[in-house]
Amino acid sequence: MDATPLLEVDGIKKAFGGVQAVDGAAFSVDEGTVTALIGPNGAGKSTVVGVIGGAIAPDEGRVSFRGEEITSLAPHRIARRGLIRTFQISREYPAMTVLENLMVSPSNQRGEKLANALFAHRSYRNQERQLAVKALDVLEDFGLYAMRDEYARNLSGGQKRLLELARSVMADPTMLILDEPMAGINPALISHIGEHILRLREAGITFLMVEHNLEVVERICDHVIVLAVGRTLAQGTMSELRANEAVVAAYLTGGIVDAGTAH
Amino acid sequence: MTGIIVGYIATLGVYFCIYNILSIGLNIQFGYAGILDFTVITFMAIGGYMAGVASLGPEQPGSQIFYILGLSLPWPVAMLIGATAAGLVGCAIGLIALRRLRSDYLAIVTLAAGSIIYGLVGNNTKIFDGFEGLVGVPQPLNGVLNLNPNSYSLFFLGFAAVIMVILWVAANRLRNSPLGRAMRATREDLEVAEAYGKNTYKLRMMAMVIGSIYVGIGGVLTIWYITALAPAGWGTSETFVVWAALIVGGVGSNGGAVIGSFLVAVVFNEATRFLPSISSNPSLIPEVRNICIGALVILTLRFRPQGVLPERKAKFPGLPERPFGEKATAVAEEV
């Protein structure tokens, strides 16, 4: 475990107006793990995810991915390095088909060059077909094959979650950050998505997931990071954390006492 | 009498081609990339004016008509200049509006930029002769062909149709390419497309500039056909006609843009211009025309929001069928 972690978050601070949303959060994610980011509402989890993904510029601190700093990069540049984040609510491309939703994901497609798009559609035809075959494979893996030509807006809430994962896989990520992938879906689908996550971990994708459902965290996550009032409160396995009084208190009190910033 | 009818039909045909090009240009901006361009007609004017001053000869002292350049250039070069100028103005507005602005603010910026350009061009008599506008712009090949006006109108109809078809094919290729798909993804959800590695700023800038070039070429054809262009011909209400055409036809669909330009621009907007005005109330017909176009937009949005010919689903032909695919789906449908 001496190798450099895949993702390192160091001393992130971010204030929105007078609210210090993140106040020095620091943690790392090792390659090949499913790491959970938990904490009470208002702990700064979503802000941290936003900072890692490049959508929010931090006031202080740095983020490194594969040993390289990515702190001030544009979101699309971070994504092209293999770090893909999803959003708290499933956000499909509603008026595009399910298959198209997947076909958007791969970066640097030949047909995304203007000259090829206008004058040389043969130049990207083979790549397009390969990507479509791959997309259909992925859809089959996620049980969405029959919906391939349906508009994404017509999927059910659960199917949209699966689409979100399928679309991310299509981008060939090194690491996926999932913001509450299990929120608002039924127990059968929760375990289903959990299985997909474990399957993808075996395939070599590292996960960081924000999650409130502690049973899920216990079942599929190797490592847990607890945030409270914008700081890292504790890290470890779920059973270690259950024994940690500060963590239990944070969940009951919102962490105000233990993080020591009562006002 | 036949002469008048031929001229009338040729003129409507030319307007059809021009409005087609304008609404396909707007479709690239709004239908592909979701850019609310509320100043479409400004790019038409820029393209027209620049092609005009490039093909006109130097300004004559004493004629009281003032304009820049006056290069007497051949028509293909003039067209290139007009298209490029429109693209550059589109790029300039994009630089201000596309970087960080939400789509509704972007709409306001385009509207404001259009008003500024209108004011500049209208009030400054030294650029394009102010509110008087350019007149006597030479028509392509008219000196060579020596046709009578009606025959020239028919020739110009063919000329405009060829350009329209070329632009139509290019727009469809763009739409069906991975580039067009990425543009549509930015239209659907800008933040998500960015998070999946798309350079959304560059994609939208491309759509903005290509759309402006299309509209600019529409402007070049306009000034050549009418041989004149003044600010009265490109007020904000003209932008509304192009928007109405796209909405009625079907946003995102180039076929819809064609049908929309025919219905709105040709049938309602231009054909009614040739009705004899009622002497007791000369403004009646134009006002009824605007009411009709407005009503058509409202009816479309209420009863067929996707337009007459909606955007089609993307097809991926030639993919192998999967015999076991359906089984794997059973799980998802329980969900």
Outline the structure in words.
The complex is a heterodimer of chains A (263) and B (335). Chain A is of the alpha/beta class and 263 residues long. Chain A folds into two domains: 7-92 and 157-162 and 171-259, 3-Layer(aba) Sandwich (Rossmann fold); 93-154, no CATH class. Chain A is built from eleven helices and ten strands. In chain A, the strands form two sheets. Chain A has a six-stranded mixed beta sheet with strand order 6-7-8-3-9-10, sandwiched between helices. In chain A, β7, α7 (187-202) and β8 (206-210) form a beta-alpha-beta unit. In chain A, α5 packs across α6. The longest helix of chain A is centred in the middle third of the chain and has 20 residues, at 122-141. The radius of gyration of chain A is 19 Å and the shape is globular. The relative contact order of chain A is 0.18. Residues 257-263 of chain A have low confidence and may be disordered. In chain B, α11 (236-249) packs across α12 (254-270). Chain B has a domain at 2-233. With 335 residues, chain B is mainly alpha-helical. Chain B is globular, with a radius of gyration of 22 Å. The longest helix of chain B has 31 residues, at 2-32. Classes of the chains: A alpha/beta (263), B mainly alpha (335).
SSE topology sketch:
The complex is a heterodimer of chains A (263) and B (335).
Chain A: E1 7-16, E2 19-29, E3 34-38, H1 45-53, E4 60-65, E5 68-69, H2 75-80, E6 83-85, H3 98-103, H4 114-119, H5 122-141, H6 157-170, E7 175-179, H7 187-202, E8 206-210, H8 214-220, E9 223-228, E10 231-236, H9 238-242, H10 245-253, H11 256-259
Helix pairs in contact in A: 5-6
Chain B: H1 2-32, H2 40-55, H3 75-97, H4 103-123, H5 125-128, H6 142-145, H7 149-176, H8 178-188, H9 190-195, H10 200-226, H11 236-249, H12 254-270, H13 284-303, H14 325-334
Helix pairs in contact in B: 1-7, 1-10, 1-11, 1-12, 2-3, 2-10, 3-10, 7-8, 8-10, 11-12, 11-13
